[in-house]
Amino acid sequence: MKGIVLAGGTGSRLFPLTAAVSKQLLPVYDKPMIYHPLTTLMLAGIREILLISTPRDLPGFQRLLGDGTHLGLEITYAGQEHPNGLAEAFVIGADHVRGGPSALVLGDNIFHGAGFGDLLRTRAAQVASGEAGCVLFGYPVRDPQRYGVGEADDRGRLLSIEEKPAHPRSDRAITGLYLYDHHVVDVAAAVTPSARGELEITDVNRAYLDQGRAHLQDLGRGFAWLDTGTHESLMEAGQYVRVLENRQGVRIACVEEVALRMGYIDADTCHALGARQAGSGYGEYVMAVADQFRS
């Protein structure tokens, strides 16, 4: 399975913070926001990743992440001139994902929960085997009228999906993480622009729903899903990360640690990556993780 991180857009709701820098390069407490969706894909077992952003912002991501080889990854880049909808990721990234299953994660979405990696790999295998055409991830919210909402049966098969419904059939908001089979490129290519002129990911999902091949994975108690599109939600995400890390002594979305625990790099490489950042608590943590792994 290959992955796409969609980190484009203007971030206008975060102006003036994003007037000169991509939203996904802003800090969420102690690390760049982009580390969160990147490690989500890594935990799913994905190592070939396409990062899509604006031509203006791509150099910043390239300076931060390079080609990914230091993490045992293969990271490539593509530009999105205008925010023409989430489904455009599969138009821009068609050559990257064509012929196999893929995952799309939005660059401003943060996921955290015990066993999340195991869950992702199980669901990715379900898509790769053809058991499911797509898997969406639902999260209970108090105000589902503000979101795309999914309804599923007791086996997790998606029954309906609605955009910002006045009378929601469930309280499960569709999060910014999507797993698709090899047909997604053709499905996305057939999508026509909506009334607002965008290629809607909901139209892709409805195509799988109409085929009876869409599933909804519930992320319930024990999981956190945060998006960081406003000043308040960005602050809340940083506070969430800070509290957990300070209480537990672990770091959320530490790319070097995830690469080590997934077997993408060895302990010596991990320690060397931490040593390059030794002037920070983050670098010291990476080195400590490497030392602990070797002991």
UniProtKB/TrEMBL annotation:
GO terms for molecular function: glucose-1-phosphate thymidylyltransferase activity. It catalyses: dTTP + alpha-D-glucose 1-phosphate + H(+) = dTDP-alpha-D-glucose + diphosphate. Its EC number is 2.7.7.24. It is an enzyme of class 2 (transferase). Keywords: Magnesium, Metal-binding, Nucleotidyltransferase, Transferase. The keyword Magnesium applies. Its cofactor is Mg(2+). Pfam families: NTP_transferase. Residues 2-239 form the Nucleotidyl transferase domain. Catalyzes the formation of dTDP-glucose, from dTTP and glucose 1-phosphate, as well as its pyrophosphorolysis. Belongs to the glucose-1-phosphate thymidylyltransferase family. This is Glucose-1-phosphate thymidylyltransferase. The gene is rfbA.
